[in-house]
Amino acid sequence: MGVGKVGIAKLCEMLNMPFSMSLSTWYDHEEALSMAHEGVKQEQLAKNRAEARLQAKSSLTEDQFEQWYQTHHCEGSYNGSSPSTEMECVKRMWGRSEQDFIRYQ
Question: The organism sits in which domain of life (predicted)?
Fold first, then answer.
């Protein structure tokens, strides 16, 4: 399908959605998304480091590990098929674009 502005334009065409955005607007949105992604990434990495430290400090028995594993919940937010992941992601991004002050015209 492609990446970047061309890829989004093709996706919009497939979804029968009009796509009209200047290159400067595209770059502004790209920067906003990049900054938001970086914040979430840093937060998740900090959580992962903390969890790794806790696990390194403890010496779990096999039973203790099994109990931990059974109660561990993945934070995944998508349960659909792999091929539809990108399309669902774009729908969710556009669905919350107003809260992030991103406008598509």
Answer: Eukaryota
Flag whether 16 is in a domain. Answer: yes
Do 76 and 3 touch, CB atoms closer than 8 A?
no
pLDDT of residue 57: 61
Q: Distance between CA atoms of 93 and 98, rounded to whole angstroms?
A: 10
* Mean pLDDT, residues 21-38: 88
Tell me the whole-structure pTM to 2 decimals. 0.40
Domain contains 105: no
Helices (H), 1-105: 4-14, 23-57, 62-71, 85-95
11 three-state secondary structure: helix
Q: Which amino acid is at 51?
A: E
